[in-house]
Amino acid sequence: MKIFIAELKAIKELDENISKKLENICAKNYEVLIGDADGIDSSVQNFYN
Fold it and tell me: Taking the CB of residue 15, how many other CB atoms lie within 10 A of it?
């Protein structure tokens, strides 16, 4: 399964619920495609790096 995360410029930080969901996505070995805009995109990139 592929997960696409992009274009949520209004959200700049990951809260605990989002972090848990991202961890679950990673645990299931889903492919994550992330945009390159400021906001949630860069936050998720940092989370997975």
Answer: 8
CA angle 6, 49, 36 (to 5 degrees): 25
pLDDT tens profile 10-49: 777 888 998 999 999 999 999 999 988 878 888 889 988 8
Q: Which domain holds residue 28?
A: 2-48
Q: How many domains does the chain have?
A: 1
27-38 pLDDT, tens digit each: 999 999 998 887
> Who's near 26: CB < 8 A, 6+ residues apart?
32, 48
